[in-house]
Amino acid sequence: MFPFDYHRATTLEDAREAHAAAEEPAYLAGGQTLIPTLKMRLAQHDRIVDLRRIPGLTGIRRDGDTLVIGAMTTHQAIADSPEVIAALPALAAMAASIGDQQVRAMGTIGGALANNDPAADYPAAALALDAAIITDMRSHKAADFFGAFFDTTLDPGEIIREVRFPLAEAAAYAKIRNPASRYAVVGVFVARTAAGPRVAVTGAAGQVFRHEAMEQALAASFSPTSLDGVATSPDGMNEDQHASADYRAHLCGVLAGRAVTAIVGAGSR
């Protein structure tokens, strides 16, 4: 990797100041994307600002009808959390499906959202659940937060502090995993909320998106068969050695059906 200065921040203010003093800085959260890209020389930063020792950025709590998760909380902590399992079991199950044991032990929800890999899982959950992403500067609505290919509305130096998930009546996530990386070839998060069903798709295109046609079909009748006539256009879908654009479009319907089936089945027990 290229040489860089390493700074272990102890406060948010310390992190911001260290970041602002460098020309090409980067924040280090769990490091599950940053470290490999540095090792392969796909990124070059003159300073890495480590956020892992800043107090107050981890933890999970219930705040009324909202689940609040600190940005530096690991995937494994979310998967194992009794609070998450009780309040949003689909989020716990999704976290348990990320990467392998080592990735889950190190990777963080805030790092994943800030990185915004187009095949990552958390953006689909945040979008489907209408999450709020709280930083040291402001609050971002998930609907506005995610751009295409690793882009977000975060300003340079802005740090995610926590993520607030409104509780859904029911939710489920289904994905086809890349067998090597376990990123989503396609992943679909379905949430049934008081305001109506919400469907978010990751991995299929250059950015996470809501599938409005599926939402309208499920609003009329929340059942897997309601999705039978809903087509997903392959236009703009990713196409690579793992799946064609047409196949990814097809998987959107298959996985949405699986998620809805899981929700309906859980409600019937």
Describe the model.
The protein has 269 residues and is α+β, with helices and mostly antiparallel strands. It has 2 domains: 46 residues, Uridine Diphospho-n-acetylenolpyruvylglucosamine Reductase, domain 2 (2-Layer Sandwich); 209 residues, Uridine Diphospho-n-acetylenolpyruvylglucosamine Reductase, domain 3 (2-Layer Sandwich). Helices cover 34% and strands 23% of the residues. The protein contains 11 helices and 12 strands. The protein has a 5-stranded antiparallel β-sheet with strand order 4-5-8-6-7. It has a 4-stranded antiparallel β-sheet with strand order 9-10-11-12, sandwiched between helices. Strands 1-3-2 form a 3-stranded parallel β-sheet, with helices on one face. The longest helix has 24 residues. The protein is globular. The mean pLDDT is 96.
Summarize the structure.
The chain has 269 residues and is of the alpha+beta class. The protein has helices at 12-20, 34-39, 75-80, 82-87, 89-96, 101-106, 109-115, 122-128, 142-145, 212-220, 245-268; strands at 5-8, 25-28, 47-50, 60-63, 66-70, 132-135, 139-141, 160-166, 170-177, 184-193, 196-202, 209-210.
CATH topology of the largest domain: Uridine Diphospho-n-acetylenolpyruvylglucosamine Reductase, domain 3
State the name of the first-level CATH class of the largest domain: Alpha Beta
In terms of quaternary structure, what is this? single chain
What is the SS-derived class?
Answer: alpha+beta
Strand order of the largest sheet: 4-5-8-6-7
Number of domains: 2
CA-CA gap between termini: 53 Å
Enumerate how many helices there are, as a single number. Answer: 11
Overall residue-averaged pLDDT value: 96
Strand count? 12
Helical fraction equals 25-40%
The H/E string reads EHEHEEEHHHHHHEEHEEEEEHH
Give start-end ranges of low-pLDDT stretches: none
Name of the CATH architecture of the largest domain: 2-Layer Sandwich
